[in-house]
Amino acid sequence: MQLVINIDDNFYKRAMVYKGEQFPDNDDLLSALITAVNNGVPLSKGHGDLIDRSQIEYMKAIHDLKWGKITASECATKIKYSAPTIVKADRSEEDG
Question: Among candidates 63, 61, 10, which has minimal Cα distance to 37?
Answer without folding.
Answer: 10
